[in-house]
Amino acid sequence: MPSKSAVVTVDEIRKHASADSLWLVVDNKVWDMTEFAPEHPGGTSILLRYAGKDATKPYNEIHAPSLISETLSPSKLKGTLDQSSVDPEWTKPPPEETKQLQLGKKPPLHTLLNAFDFERVGSETINPKAWAYFSSAATDLITLDANRNAYNRIWFRPRVFRNVRKCDTRTKILGCESSLPLMISPAAMAKVVHPDGEKVLARAAASQGIIQAISTNASYSVTDIVPSAPAGHPFVFQLYVNKDRAKTESLLRIVESLGVKAIFVTVDAHVIGKREADERIKADDSLSPPMSGTKNTDDKKGGGLARTTGAFIDESFEWEDLAWLRRVTKLPLVVKGIQGAADAKMAMRWGVDGIVVSNHGGRSLDTTPASVLVLLELQKNCPEVFDKMEVFVDGGIRRGTDILKALCLGARAVGMGRTFLYALNYGQEGVEHFVDIMRDELETSMRLLGITDLSQCHPGLLNTGDVDHLIPSLEEEHPYAKWRPKAVL
Question: Are both 186 and 54 inside the same structural domain?
């Protein structure tokens, strides 16, 4: 048997291309995966697809570089690839990769001028399964469209004869300095867009002085992501509570030890919405988020990446469990997924540090109200929440004007998710370019509105008459409340 220092030829590696003897090459190292294959979280089929071949590219698209050496015994390392034995057949990509290489060519980054440009390019160049997962939303996409369209129905009321030579977009988010009232919303499996995934987002966020929310379903562990940015750069962590609460407690201890500044506990996706575009495309069974440990598989419902990787989420988590979460972590708590005034008031009563007004980007329950309309509902029914805790919002934001409207309605900052993933398609430079675009749009909009500092934002700068009739009163004041069973009231 070859030693660890042995040089292994291509011909020898090709002999081990079955379940009985399964070797793979990753980063020029030859590994014996035979015993590990049945236990692989992503299933055996993906390993067999690359058995006796070079699996470097698909491996690095999904996994952290150190994972294979941490998982396998040193005895499974058979040696290094003999480069002199490489032939044209060895370097030929498999059919799946060949098809991906034929996707549309990306235009030069400088030609992309807005969020919609990044989305268009992403639709033409990102792997079809990844695109279906990131762009999809629940059922008929009504909330997805409403998130965006509602901003278009709110009008500015500009003031003129103002000195707007200097403009300041800086703010504080949960006590942390940010150059913009903009966060990178948590999103799963960024590595399917770029090999370094969330680590690239971390580096770009640090260079631009904004905050990244790290997802529980990130394609890298939080221990890999946080050190990607300079020491001291602030992060927040988005938490899905695990059915196995002990796993959540262990994860939160790691998060705290890394200096993460706050926990954003997600409450609007305890079960995953029906995202049909994601379901229609076959699952990639190699995907397995390291912090949740679930895997993507096909079943009778289809190939939904979100649904299958979200199977670990605790559906029983409720308000009273915030007391447990407070005992587990001393970090500030933000409840992500508030969709009405009644729950915003509940969050305030439970003493959380903030809320995110969010419908999960239209990906959970379709026909829930647009996020910006919920901000209006809070202003109408419980304006005190803006004084008691920090209020954030995401969903449908594509322009600097959208950010400014949300701030005028009381939001401390906004989150953007999908578009950052589309920008990631161009690597760190693409993410930084996108942030520059949003910064420029926000500054321009502020000056034209007649303000120079975010503290000057207020509802009086907006005309919301086109949507005011859509804003309900509190649930207990609903005219039809008396017709419902008492148990529901």
Answer: no
Kindly state the tokens that stand for 481.
């409340």
Q: Among residues 24, 50, 85, which one ends one of the domains? A: 85
In a domain, 201, yes or no: yes
The rounded distance, in Å, linking the Cα atoms of 244 and 41 is: 18
**Measured torsion, CA atoms of residues 447, 449, 450, 456, in degrees rounded to the nearest 10:** -100
- Whole-number pLDDT of residue 179: 98
Buried b (16+ CB within 10 A) or exposed e, 78-93: bbbbbeeeeeeeeeee
372 close to 406: Cβ distance less than 8 angstroms: yes
Residue type, 344: A
Q: Are residues 145 and 207 in the same domain?
A: yes
Q: How many domains does the chain have?
A: 2
Chain length of the chain: 489
Nearest to 155 by CA among 401, 400, 376: 401
pLDDT tens sequence across 87-141: 888 887 665 543 343 345 789 999 999 999 999 999 999 888 788 888 888 888 8
Residue at a domain's end among 85, 118, 143: 85
278 with 337, same domain: the answer is: yes
CA distance 355 to 357: 6
55 in a domain, yes or no?
yes
Sheet holding 77-81, edge to edge: 7-8, 77-81, 29-32, 23-26, 53-54
Q: What is the separation of C-alpha 52 from the centre of its chain, rounded to a whole number of angstroms?
A: 34
- Which of 360, 433, 458, 469 is flagged as catalytic? 360
pTM given for the model: 0.77
Within 10 A of 336 (CB to CB), how many other CB atoms are there?
26
d(CA 101, CA 260): 38
What is the Cα–Cα distance from 377 to 391, expressed in whole angstroms?
A: 13
SS3 271: coil
**In terms of domains, do 148 and 249 share one?**
yes
Q: Indicate whether 253 and 351 sit together in one domain.
A: yes
Could you tell me how many helices (H) and strands (E) the chain has, helices first? 21, 17
Give yes or no: 63 in active site: no
Q: Which residues of the chain have pLDDT under 70?
A: 1-5, 40-43, 61-65, 93-104, 273, 275, 277-278, 280-289, 292-310, 475-489
pLDDT for the residue 483: 59
pLDDT, residue 56, reads 84
* Beta-sheet strands, E only, within 153-204: 155-156, 171-173, 176-178, 182-184
Tell me the residue range of the domain where 35 lies.
7-85
441 & 342 share domain = yes
Q: 304 — phi, psi (to 5°)?
A: -65, 110
CATH code for position 53: 3.10.120.10
Are both 174 and 275 inside the same structural domain? Answer: yes
Task: Establish if 402 belongs to a structural domain.
Answer: yes
Considering the domain boundaries, does residue 115 fall inside one? no
